[in-house]
Amino acid sequence: MVAGLKGIRLAVVGGDDREIYLIPELQKLGAYIVGVGLEKAPPIPGLTLVGTLLEAVSQVDVLLFPMFGTDERGLVKAKYGNSPVVLNKEVLQAIPSKVPLCIGWARQALKSAADMLGIRIVETANLPELAILNSIPSAEGAIQMAMEATPITLHGSQSFVIGLGRTGWTLARMLMGIGAHVTGVARKSADLARAAEMGFQPVHLSDLEDQIGRAEIVFNTAPAPVLDRVMLEMMARDAVIIDLASLPGGTDFEYAQMLGIKALLAPGLPGIVAPKTAGKILAQVYPQLILRQLSTVNALV
Fold it and tell me: Sign of the C-alpha dihedral, residues 287, 56, 52, 105?
């Protein structure tokens, strides 16, 4: 059951097409929405636009930043903004202590600053329910990219999935459904056992160097430098890498290019390939999250 948000004031800051679908869903639940960096968005009835992030923080109960988080300068992606939206020291100092800041990924500098200022940071990308649901458009998008990047069918291909986390499992299952020969690469023995049970060929990460030479398509979901120079040297030069790990990815892209291996970084796929679905996924998860955060804040007051 979706929770009601009547009377709750939310700032939706920047983002992409996901936010265009998210906002009306939150409004249906009774939320009052203040938009920042949405000046060029398609008209959304009832949305209040403000010119700056600084103006918004004093008007709302919860701040909702994009799944992308910010760059190292605090710049927030705002596809529909007229001017840059920056989460800087001035803005952070203006955020009331009772206003939670929800953001996909928080850089360490933001976490440290928030901790010093007593601001509650909630990293939404770490929410299990959101990560699992987002794995569906992420996997579909990765498969679409692989289809466009390779001269072969995925059916019958030697497809490696590195990292059997939430996205990795969904992706491996979809690839098997297409008819790919799936190799699941992981560290944990439990994951390797599950991979074998599901019909994938299990390979421990420590053995990947010996196995990766037979890969035609490699999907990396591990947020670590897995596909380094040594590993790339062992790969076929006509192989394709689709890297879904969070920035900067797990591939040495410069060296892959030197070797002639096509390697594509694919962060933020839900908002690119299926923004309507991705926006509605956020609308499923955010109401309970918002109510939990406000309940926690009120309990501390």
Answer: negative
